[in-house]
Structure to design on (793 residues):
């Protein structure tokens, strides 16, 4: 049986259990319920959840060394992470504000570049940005929006403050796990959903389809498709899942062809069919071998021509990744103030830019205390976590930073909040978590109710990525006024 | 509907049908071997011929005995024609078309494959074999039932059904081809008392025994069995019935003229042929041509719908 008195999350903010083993208000109902279960009953629930995951075929793809790939069920912890509705509403507002400003920023960069002229954002950052696409300059995409779908990573520090850690504006993934986790939980703990107001998450696919359809120039029944790199992509499960949920075709590059009229068509059993909107889950550099990587086998030759001519809408628009850069990240508070004249609702994690000589010096002196990240990597790759690093790794990073300062930022090691995670029979221990909500920028903005909570399953670990020993939890936004 | 997706669905159904038919065949053969005298050299070789896996078997195994053949046909992933490989291919084809097919179908097929892989990991012991294969057959049937009961009759469904019936027609003709060869040609005196049960086994491997009995009401005789399994329009595993189903499915798909023409030609040919009069070499030649024609029908389907170009 779970006893919260033995639960010790010393030094971190725990999402469910407050000081002295007292559950936080929105988690009271859950903690009462968990305590009422015997070890056997708890194990039964855990087994049932695992079986559901296996049967539902929820997987992610990992690559093995021979270049083959295998499907793995993504580890799932049955104890949800809980946030009060009142707190979430404020965070949600902050995310909308942030993504709105980022969209204005991207449009400006590919347009007049007012922000550079006004010396708020350094122009030289653009010229050596890996994700700035000169091919997109002067384009005005449908509705003027560039990053239609954004996944921002949130973390909470020891004092309870929520920060944005990064914004994923290229092809953010994870939303299908958020949706599937909820399905698993409903199968596993149906009794809990009757007792309290847990906000539903299921309308995401409908919202996504509506937003995508709004990008079409054809008013009636636009044809929306999801473009995937194929089954060996680690997020293929998600591509297929979203297409299914939206009732759209899931296409690969080879299914599409650009006609002489610059419209995009897909190959069907009835012949060629006109496509209006492409939700592309392929990185910019691979979408069109005519313009970008000529060796790309997964792209569609001529796609950029069609997009620039306004014959097809792409979400996210190519080039959106320019705001995904971790150096650009450090400017987001200024970006919000510049375009919206507002203070950021959710703060950034304090960030040192290695391109600045003074800040670089500070970083190099404090490598053992800081987290160093390359500007353009995702998935937790190429990072240095100072306090857990060896001397050799720190020397390596010092060299890397000096060779290419523009490409690195550093942040203090946050203590990342924790949440109780089942580690053995009737035993819960704190494990670090983050949260990735998804923000849709359509005619009216939409933020998921919560998002995907990722959990670092290894004791003490701060790495939550699925490719590196992370798992996930369901995320509950509980409306305490409604229950 | 995407050409690629149509192709995947068609193959998913073919592989699933192949796995099921193979399971039936192995089950019945296991049973038959128990009934035959030891001195009769009847065994497992024909099953390798039916699946066309003799060469690959020879490369992988030394002794042509029951244990090896069953292992090869059921559990060997190195052999692309084994049950486990067929299930794997069915699943891979469905994996890319999960957004088309009701979710329960994916869940069942995924489950079926994972279970089969786990249960055959350490071989297929004789005592557990029957139960295992029976479960597998009923799991395949369950998926077929789910597809029939939950899929809208859109083109997706017709491609699935076309794949299933084409594969079934092919498997029935293969089973007949191999089995009639050893039954008709090698009918030594010694075998005669057992010929009857062998023909029964042919029927049973196609789950046709009961239906045959209702239909023919005579003792089991070779010409009647052939007539029933090739020309019966009502029995769902008879070649004629399968081709009729294929024809009906194709009619629902746009631009179907070529494939429909092909299958109609084949149906007419079957109708003209008097199966009862065919013996040994003639029968063999007939079945050979039938299989070539089925392959030709597949090619026509492929060029019409799967290989669309701008």
């Amino acid at each position: 049986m779970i006893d919260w008195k033995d639960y010790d999350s010393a030094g971190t903010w725990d999402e469910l259990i407050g000081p002295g083993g007292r559950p936080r208000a929105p988690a009271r109902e859950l903690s009462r319920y968990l305590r009422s279960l015997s070890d056997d009953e708890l194990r039964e629930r855990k087994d049932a959840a695992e079986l559901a995951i296996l049967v539902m075929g929820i997987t992610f793809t990992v690559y093995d060394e021979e270049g083959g790939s295998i499907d793995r069920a993504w580890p799932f912890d049955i104890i949800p992470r809980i946030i009060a509705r009142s707190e979430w509403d404020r965070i949600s507002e902050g995310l909308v504000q942030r993504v709105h400003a980022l969209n204005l920023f991207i449009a400006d960069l590919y347009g007049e570049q007012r922000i550079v002229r006004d010396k708020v954002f350094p122009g030289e950052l653009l010229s050596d940005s890996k994700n700035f696409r000169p091919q997109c300059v002067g384009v005005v995409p449908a509705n003027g929006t560039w990053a239609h779908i954004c996944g921002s990573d949130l973390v909470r520090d020891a004092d309870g403050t929520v920060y944005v850690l990064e914004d994923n504006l290229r092809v953010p993934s994870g939303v299908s796990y958020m949706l599937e986790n909820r399905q698993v939980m409903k199968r596993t703990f149906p009794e809990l959903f009757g007792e309290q107001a847990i906000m539903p998450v299921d309308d995401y696919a409908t919202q996504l389809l509506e937003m995508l359809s709004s990008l079409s120039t054809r008013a009636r029944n636009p044809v929306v498709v999801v473009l995937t790199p194929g089954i060996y992509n680690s997020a293929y499960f998600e591509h297929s899942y979203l297409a299914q949920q939206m009732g759209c075709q899931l296409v690969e590059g080879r299914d599409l062809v650009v006609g002489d009229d610059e419209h995009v068509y897909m190959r069907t059993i009835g012949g060629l069919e006109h496509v209006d909107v492409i939700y592309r889950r392929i990185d910019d550099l691979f979408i069109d071998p005519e313009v970008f990587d000529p060796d790309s086998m997964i792209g569609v030759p001529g796609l950029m021509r069609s997009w620039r001519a306004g014959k097809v809408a792409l979400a996210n628009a190519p080039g959106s990744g320019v705001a995904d850069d971790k150096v650009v990240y450090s400017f987001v508070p200024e970006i919000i103030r510049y375009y919206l004249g507002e203070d950021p609702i959710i703060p950034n994690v304090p960030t040192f830019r290695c391109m600045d000589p003074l800040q670089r010096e500070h970083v190099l002196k404090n490598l053992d205390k800081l987290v160093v990240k390359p500007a353009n990597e995702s998935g937790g790759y190429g990072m240095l976590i100072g306090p857990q690093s060896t001397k050799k790794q720190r020397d390596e990073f010092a060299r890397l930073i000096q060779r290419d300062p523009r490409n690195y930022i550093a942040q203090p090691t946050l203590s990342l909040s924790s949440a109780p995670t089942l580690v053995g029979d009737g035993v819960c221990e704190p494990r670090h978590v983050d949260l990735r909500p998804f923000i849709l920028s359509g005619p009216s903005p939409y933020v998921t109710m919560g998002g995907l909570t990722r959990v670092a399953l290894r004791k003490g670990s701060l790495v939550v990525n699925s490719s590196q020993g992370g798992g996930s939890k369901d995320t509950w936004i509980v409306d305490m006024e409604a229950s | 509907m995407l050409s690629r997706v149509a192709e995947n669905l068609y193959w998913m159904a073919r592989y699933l049908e192949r796995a099921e038919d193979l399971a039936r065949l192995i089950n019945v053969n296991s049973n038959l071997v128990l009934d035959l005298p030891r001195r009769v050299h009847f065994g497992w070789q024909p099953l390798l011929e039916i699946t066309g896996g003799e060469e690959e078997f020879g490369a992988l195994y030394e002794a042509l005995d029951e244990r090896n053949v069953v292992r090869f046909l059921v559990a060997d992933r190195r052999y692309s024609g084994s049950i486990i490989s067929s299930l794997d291919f069915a699943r891979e084809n469905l994996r890319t078309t999960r957004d088309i097919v009701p979710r329960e179908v994916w869940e069942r097929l995924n489950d079926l494959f994972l279970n089969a892989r786990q249960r055959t990991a350490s071989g297929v012991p004789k005592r557990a074999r029957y139960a295992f294969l029976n479960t597998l057959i009923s799991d395949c049937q369950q998926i077929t039932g789910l597809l029939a009961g939950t899929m809208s009759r859109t083109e997706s469904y017709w491609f699935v059904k076309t794949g299933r019936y084409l594969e079934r027609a092919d498997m029935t003709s293969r089973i007949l081809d191999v089995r009639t060869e050893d039954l008709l040609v090698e009918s030594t005196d010694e075998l005669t008392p057992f010929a009857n049960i062998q023909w029964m086994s042919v029927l049973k491997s196609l789950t046709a025994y009961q239906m045959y009995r209702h239909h023919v009401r005579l003792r089991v005789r070779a010409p009647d069995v052939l007539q029933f399994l090739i020309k019966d329009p009502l029995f769902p595993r008879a070649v004629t019935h399968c081709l009729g189903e294929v024809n009906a499915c194709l009619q629902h798909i746009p631009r179907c003229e070529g494939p429909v023409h092909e299958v109609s030609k084949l149906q007419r040919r079957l109708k003209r042929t008097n199966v009862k009069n065919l013996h040994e070499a003639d029968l063999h030649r007939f079945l050979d041509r039938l299989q070539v024609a089925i392959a030709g029908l597949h090619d026509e389907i492929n060029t019409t719908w799967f290989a669309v170009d701008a």
In short: Confidence is low (pLDDT under 50) at residues 185-190 of chain B. Residues 224 and 310 of chain B are 51 Å apart (CA to CA).
